Amino acid sequence: MDINDYETVVETAKRLGKSRCRILQMIKANRIPGVIMLSKRYLIPKSFVPENIDYRTVEGRRLKESYKMFVTDKDPNNK
């Protein structure tokens, strides 16, 4: 586990354009895989993208591009 591969609830909320409360609801409903709790704080994998993103919208395309950037940084063979 590398701590640099995770982000806080607030950082995830900003990246996804959602509220902090909505991200916490998703964590409690087990809709975000790979969440760990460290010292009373949730850490979410940076590679998390909700499954119901509509890539036809501007926000969806932006999230898709940010996810692609993250994946290509981790694995140069992934296209």
- Tell me which CATH architecture applies here: Orthogonal Bundle
Helix-strand sequence = EHHEEH
Shape: globular
Radius of gyration: 13 Å
What is the helical fraction, as a range of percent?
40-55%
Q: What's the total count of β strands?
A: 3
What is CATH's topology name?
Arc Repressor Mutant, subunit A
Strands of the widest sheet, in order across it, are: 1-3-2
Q: What is the topological layout?
A:
Layout: E1 6-7, H1 9-16, H2 20-28, E2 36-38, E3 41-45, H3 58-74
Defining key terms:
single chain; about 80 residues; alpha+beta; Arc Repressor Mutant, subunit A; about 15% strand
In short:
The chain has 79 residues and is of the alpha+beta class.
Outline the structure in words.
The chain has a single domain (3-74), classed as Arc Repressor Mutant, subunit A, CATH 1.10.10. It is built from 3 helices and 3 strands; from the N terminus they run βααββα. The protein has helices spanning 9-16, 20-28, 58-74, and strands at residues 6-7, 36-38, 41-45. A 3-stranded antiparallel β-sheet has the order 1-3-2. α1 crosses α2. The mean pLDDT is 79.
